[in-house]
């Protein structure tokens, strides 16, 4: 029962004091004695009621206080629970916050590192840019230089071509003059013979007929090489025309002085005016000036040496003026299909005890055709086209080095068993002549 319900139950007892007191207000009433008694009872009741009322009121206040205390306790308990929960949540939030802070710190450290790296890389990139710019400038300078050189080379090439044409004309004239001289000599000789005969027989010579006969016989004569020209009585060294086949002719320099003469020259170096770092095709067809440095051409040498047995003579000159030679009793080269392979027999001479050409033979190699026995490319390394082995003891088509520059050069003009492998020679000549001469 709540305090308020108790209040309701006792409310009929809480009468106003003036109503209780009214019965004792008339002392001279006929029923005075009984009235006094009643009045005393009434007073007693009234006091008792007052006491009871006070007790009831006190008890109600107590109950009320207890209820309020219960309520307060409940509230406190709930508050404590909420506080605990709040504390837990706060701890969790704090933990989370510290974790986030740590992560943030780590991230900022990583960012710093990355920034440093980025800065470093930027510096490197700018350095590279600078280098690149320098290289580009150099490249441009080189390109302009190259352009100038190209123009110069073009001009020089045209001059060389012009000179070559003049030279060819002069050579042709020289050959014609020589043959005319020979014809005249022959004609004079035959005229003299006829005169002596006619003197004996008393007949006048038909000189015109004799001239015609001599002329036609000479025109019909086709020389296969310099040995035949020599044997025909032409003893001066120079450029002559030979008949490789019935149709094909070729101009050749004939050496009519060395070791009895009649040599067809197939290679010559003497002053470094010709570039010998050439392609397979150029070595095939020949290049250079016949009066100066040249390579006759592998195809012609193959055609010549496949007709009959030939000797080879290699003449070498060093920078002290010393001359020497190597002689081979048999020399021929294979066809283009056989890579113009070299075949040799019997070496002798003054340019070394052993042969500086690969005596067992070797295929021909150029800068654009690697047929050597090296895993490298000898023609590129040592320059020139040659019968390289791996790479072998000779290369007469190497770089030309002038006097003072010719020592310690592996890519020079080498003839190992004459002057060693790093000595570049001053002059060379390779020439062939039939074995039967
Ligand atoms: Ca090779």
TrEMBL record:
Annotated compartments: Secreted
Domain Fibrinogen C-terminal stretches: 217-436
Major localization listed first in the record, in broad terms: secreted
This protein's record includes keyword Glycoprotein: yes
GO biological process, one term: blood coagulation
InterPro entries named among the record's database cross-references: ANG-1/2/4 (IPR057439), FIB_ANG-like (IPR037579), Fibrinogen-like_C (IPR036056), Fibrinogen_a/b/g_C_1 (IPR014716), Fibrinogen_a/b/g_C_dom (IPR002181), Fibrinogen_CS (IPR020837)
Cross-referenced Pfam families: ANG-1, Fibrinogen_C
Coiled-coil residue spans: 125-152
Cellular component annotations (GO), alphabetically ordered: extracellular region
Keywords (A to Z) from UniProt: Angiogenesis, Coiled coil, Disulfide bond, Glycoprotein, Secreted, Signal
PANTHER family: FIBRINOGEN ALPHA CHAIN
Alphabetical list of NCBIfam families matching this protein: GGGWT_bact (NF040941)
Protein name: Fibrinogen C-terminal domain-containing protein
């Amino acid at each position: 029962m709540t305090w308020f319900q108790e209040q309701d139950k006792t409310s009929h007892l809480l009468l106003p004091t003036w109503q209780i007191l009214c019965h004792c207000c008339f002392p001279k009433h006929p029923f005075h004695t009984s009235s006094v008694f009643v009045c005393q009872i009434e007073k007693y009741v009234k006091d008792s009621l007052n006491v009871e009322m006070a007790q009831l009121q006190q008890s109600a206040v107590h109950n009320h206080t207890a209820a309020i205390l219960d309520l307060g306790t409940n509230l406190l308990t709930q508050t404590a629970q909420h506080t605990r929960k709040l504390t837990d949540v706060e701890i969790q939030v704090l933990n989370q916050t510290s974790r986030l802070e740590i992560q943030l710190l780590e991230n900022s450290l990583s960012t710093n590192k990355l920034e440093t790296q980025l800065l470093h890389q930027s510096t490197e990139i700018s350095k590279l840019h600078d280098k690149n710019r320098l290289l580009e400038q150099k490249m441009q300078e080189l390109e302009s230089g190259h352009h100038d050189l190209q123009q110069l080379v073009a001009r020089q090439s045209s001059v060389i071509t012009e000179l070559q044409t003049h030279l060819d004309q002069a050579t042709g004239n020289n050959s014609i003059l020589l043959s005319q001289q020979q014809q005249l000599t022959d004609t004079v000789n035959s005229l003299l013979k006829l005169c002596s005969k006619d003197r004996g027989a008393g007949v006048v010579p038909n000189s015109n007929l004799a001239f015609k006969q001599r002329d036609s016989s000479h025109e019909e004569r086709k020389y296969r090489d310099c040995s035949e020209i020599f044997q025909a009585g032409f003893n001066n060294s120079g450029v002559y025309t030979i008949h490789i086949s019935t149709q094909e002719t070729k101009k050749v320099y004939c050496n009519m002085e060395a070791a009895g003469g009649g040599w067809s020259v197939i290679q010559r170096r003497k002053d470094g005016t010709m570039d010998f770092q050439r392609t397979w095709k150029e070595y095939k067809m020949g290049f250079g000036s016949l009066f100066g440095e040249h390579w006759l051409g592998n195809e012609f040498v193959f055609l010549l040496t496949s007709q009959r047995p030939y000797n080879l003579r290699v003449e070498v000159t060093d920078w002290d003026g010393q001359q020497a030679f190597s002689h081979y009793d048999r020399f021929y080269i294979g066809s283009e299909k056989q890579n113009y392979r070299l075949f040799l027999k019997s070496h002798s001479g003054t340019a070394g005890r052993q042969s500086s050409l690969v005596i067992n033979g070797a295929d021909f190699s150029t800068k654009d055709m690697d047929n050597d026995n090296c895993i490298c490319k000898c023609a590129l390394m040592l320059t020139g086209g040659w019968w390289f082995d791996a790479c072998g003891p000779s290369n007469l088509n190497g770089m030309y080095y002038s006097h003072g520059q010719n020592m310690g050069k592996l890519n020079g003009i080498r003839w190992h068993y004459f002057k060693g492998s790093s000595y570049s020679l001053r002059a060379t000549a390779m020439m062939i002549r039939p074995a039967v001469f």
